[in-house]
Amino acid sequence: MPTRADANTDTPEAVTGWQNWSRSLPPQRAQIVTPKDTAQLAKLIRETEGGVRPVGSGHSWTGLVPSDGAIVKLDNFNAVGAVDSQSKTAWLGAGARLKDLSPQLAAHGLAFRNLGDIDVQSLAGATSTATHGTGRDLQCLAAEIRGVKMITGAGEALEVSARQNTALLPAVQVALGALGVLTEIEMQLVARHKLHRRVWFAPYRQVLADAEQLWADNRNFEFFYLPFSDTAMCITHNLTEAEDTPRNLDESDDAVMQLKALRDWLGWFPYLRKKLLAAAISGAPEEDVVGESWQLLSSARNVPFNEMEFHLPVSEALDALEEVRAHIERHRADVFFPFECRMTAQDTAWLSPFNEGPRISVAVHTHAPFGAPDEYEFLFTDIEPIFRRRGGRPHWGKLNRFSGADMRATYPQFEAFAKLRAELDPDGRLLNPYLRALFGAA
Ligand SMILES: Cc1cc2nc3c(=O)[nH]c(=O)nc-3n(C[C@H](O)[C@H](O)[C@H](O)COP(=O)(O)OP(=O)(O)OC[C@H]3O[C@@H](n4cnc5c(N)ncnc54)[C@H](O)[C@@H]3O)c2cc1C
User: Fold this and answer.
1) Which residue's alpha carbon is nearest to atom 1 within ligand 1?
2) pLDDT digits over 244-266, tens only?
3) Euclidean distance between CA atoms 31 and 34, whole angstroms
4) Using one digit for the tens of pLDDT, what is the confidence trace for 133-157?
5) I need a surface site. Which of 52, 139, 178, 316 has the fewest CB within 10 A?
6) Distance CA 395, CA 310 (A)
7) Which part of the chain is the FAD-binding PCMH-type domain (predicted)?
8) Which residues line ligand 1 at a C-beta cut-off of 6 Å?
9) Is 405 exposed, middle or buried (CB count within 10 Å of its CB: 0-12, 13-18, 19+)?
10) Which structural domain range is residue 94 located in?
11) pLDDT tier at 2 (50, 70, 90 boundaries)?
């Protein structure tokens, strides 16, 4: 358990002990420090022995956050600052949680254009790894960044915005916390809006055949393939002016635990498993509701899991999904979490996985109960090679074994980013073992 180590008001609050959400990374003994203002933050970056790493809500699986020195939490940088209702932009505290920002933005008549499956991430954490939702014409969250204020690895204040250092905008949008610690982010927002949400089940082959059309016809479309069932769950969201409808939101873990029970009892009897899955699916509730965008797009994820997600060229993604499905159903009776399939529009951020065209993301999950996670090495040995062969780029925050050389070969602007990183953080104050390996830095 984290222990409170320092409650002195003149020094930043500090506790020790950190672990990421799924506990896939070893527990960290580093201090977690919560600076009150930019002066404290700059001092921490300059003076902490071993350097610092910024953390959001710890929802990444890759080794981005562990630190040889301290982990810096931006909880005190969480306010809604200047709002420009004309341009629908606002300066927002980089450490604010998306779920706390949405209702505050709604009070200004504004909303995020899109959100991912959850909204508990911090704004800086989510954008720094190119967190995305789904929608053929909708970009990842980082592409909506119009400006940032940060303390660089050299401990200096830097603004990148329409006013200053504008050319650096595509570098700072997706930056892994490697250029500096973001304190404020100017986001492009849209008018507060309502969505019509539909959830239904359909034969998997039919969904594969219709997927491109469903992406074209709906503002947001995604589907989950339920392994061993030949069935997919489809979800659409579309703009509407209709009245809100009551939602029987089931945030219990019953559905996923039912899939687990069928795996536990019938994993080695695929025919029976499929039969009972079909019965369970036919009784599963479908949804047809209207509500505020942010209340419908994201939901709670209470069952811990490990996840690999790759962003693939549109022409390759559904074939990759099919290869993954066939492999898992032949060799991995233990998998029961649905595979997720989403689409994201192109943007221009140097390290955005979507910067060379729209991509379809395919994600595979394994159960990770604390202390006894399901074995997931096969994600690296069996599934990652499928995604690699088909030109996939890994989600920056999710499981993958891409090396620095792999990333360099994947991203045309990787070298330019690495050069900028070395300029803004000449002494490697923001480096940790993971980033050192990624950037080949000493
Ligand atoms: C249950 C679950 C559901 C998820 N759903 C989705 C989804 O739908 N779509 C998707 O794309 N991803 C999804 N993710 C992945 C998640 O959105 C990303 O890993 C995201 O980066 C996590 O945000 P965080 O606030 O937890 O950041 P952390 O994981 O704490 O940090 C992520 C990165 O941001 C950096 N960072 C944090 N704060 C700052 C700062 N102030 N300045 C500079 N850098 C900073 C960190 O150093 C690190 O490099 C999901 C993850 C989980 C566990």
Assistant:
1) 301
2) 998 876 666 777 777 887 787 77
3) 10
4) 999 999 999 999 999 999 999 999 9
5) 316
6) 6
7) 25-192
8) 21, 53-60, 64-65, 74, 94-95, 116-118, 121-122, 124-126, 128-129, 131-132, 176-177, 181-182, 301, 395, 397
9) exposed
10) 80-191
11) very low
